[in-house]
């Protein structure tokens, strides 16, 4: 005997749980919804759901989609579309559904949008004030009181006293101030000059005056102490060197161009500085070249290093206060192994650009040790401008400069016909000991 699905559900509604009578309590009716009775017994709900799902297995989805209208397809697409409104990284169009069906007017143009917004703001009338401004003044206008300057009365002294004070020196005025205890008459500079002078008679009172001066400054009992007026020092004039003209003169090997000073010229391109280094390769006149504060970097240092390997005229090179790193500094020092004419090299105060300000960058222990090692191999460099931060490289560098200066002194002495030997350096004493004994 077969039962249809309708007859099954009908029997479920009419029956209760096993052992209960039909028409029982509400709980029994609810329980009866979850059990189906068949002629052989209870059928689980899972088996019924499985049979219900079997009806949709043979359905053709493509056929169903073809029967849907455009509006129904659009609604289906909106339901299936996955949007994330909380994701701020997605564009606005991908975080929400389309709110309009209008066709796009074109691609986004920012300038046109700004012009439209500006035009719309100008055409929109301003909101009128609820209470118009009439310009009426109310109350009394504030009038500041006039400050009355104190009247300075001219004090007339006796002619002899006037003449004595007019011709008195600073030391004598300090002596009078010490006697009278009026320490506000002198400044600190006058006090120390008077204390060092031999013309002061009452130095004991002067010392007590200085003590009173300190106490009065702390307790604010007496007025302000006089300060020394220093002369204003005018600012240094900007460098007037013509960069392009000087470069042409170097390339022409101008005999009058012995020194080139480009210090503190900020707008020199890096290519121009490298052109200066290339011009010094063939130049045989320039002896001093300085590019302090010209924003030179490692490419300029590499070009100068190649120049030092060939140049035989340059005696002084100054590249302080630039942006040369340890690599560029080492290349400059290493080029001195092939140079025997350079006598002075200044590389101190190399800067590193920071977020807030320019600050000096340390080269580090490894770079300083390499510099000291190469300085020991050089015998012609007499002045080396760099402040070592480590004690070991500093001692080795200073000893190398002392050795070079003593060697240069020996060479000068031999050229003059006399011979002197500095015994402060053991290496030179050993090197020239035999020659010293032969001449004595």
TrEMBL record:
Tree of life domain: Eukaryota
Chief place of localization: cytoplasm
GO cellular component: striated muscle thin filament
Keywords per UniProt: Actin-binding, Coiled coil, Cytoplasm, Cytoskeleton
TM helices/strands, residue ranges: none
Family label: Belongs to the tropomodulin family.
Name of the protein in its database record: Tropomodulin
């Amino acid at each position: 005997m077969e039962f249809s699905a309708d007859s099954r559900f009908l029997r479920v509604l009419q029956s209760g749980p096993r052992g209960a009578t039909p028409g029982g309590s509400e709980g029994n009716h609810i329980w009866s919804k979850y059990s189906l009775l068949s002629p052989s017994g209870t059928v689980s709900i899972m088996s019924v759901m499985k049979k219900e799902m079997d009806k949709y297995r043979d359905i053709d989805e493509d056929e169903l989609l073809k029967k849907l209208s455009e509006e129904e397809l659009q609604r289906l697409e909106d339901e299936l579309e996955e949007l994330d409104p909380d994701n701020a990284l997605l564009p606005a169009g991908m975080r929400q559904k389309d709110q309009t069906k209008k066709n796009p007017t074109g691609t986004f143009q920012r300038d046109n949008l700004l012009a439209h917004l500006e035009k719309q703001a100008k055409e929109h009338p301003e909101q009128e004030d609820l209470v118009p401004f009439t310009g009426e003044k109310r109350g009394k206008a504030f009038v500041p009181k006039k400050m009355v300057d104190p009247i300075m009365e001219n004090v007339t002294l006796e002619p002899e006293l006037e003449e004595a004070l007019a011709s008195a020196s600073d030391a004598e005025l300090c002596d009078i101030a010490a006697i009278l205890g009026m320490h506000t008459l002198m400044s600190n500079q006058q006090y120390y000059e008077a204390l060092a002078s031999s013309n002061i008679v009452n130095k004991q009172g002067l010392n007590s005056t200085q003590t009173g001066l300190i106490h009065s400054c702390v307790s604010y009992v007496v007025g302000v102490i006089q300060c020394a007026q220093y002369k204003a020092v005018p600012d240094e004039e900007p460098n007037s060197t013509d960069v392009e003209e000087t470069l042409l003169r170097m390339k022409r090997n101008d005999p009058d161009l012995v020194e080139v000073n480009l210090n503190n010229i900020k707008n020199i391109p890096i290519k121009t500085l490298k052109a200066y280094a290339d011009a010094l390769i063939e130049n045989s006149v320039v002896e001093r070249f300085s590019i302090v504060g010209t924003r030179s970097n490692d490419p300029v240092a590499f070009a100068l290093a190649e120049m030092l390997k060939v140049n035989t005229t340059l005696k002084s090179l100054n590249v302080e206060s630039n942006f040369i790193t340890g690599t560029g500094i080492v290349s400059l020092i290493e080029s001195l192994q092939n140079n025997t004419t350079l006598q002075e090299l200044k590389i101190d105060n190399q800067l590193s650009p920071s977020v807030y300000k320019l600050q000096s960058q340390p080269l580090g222990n490894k770079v300083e040790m390499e510099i000291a090692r190469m300085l020991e191999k050089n015998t012609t460099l007499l002045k080396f401008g760099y402040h070592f931060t480590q004690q070991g490289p500093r001692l080795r560098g200073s000893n190398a400069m002392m050795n070079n200066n003593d060697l240069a002194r020996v060479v000068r002495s031999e050229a003059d016909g006399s011979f002197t030997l500095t015994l402060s350096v053991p290496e030179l004493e050993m090197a020239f000991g035999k020659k010293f004994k032969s001449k004595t």
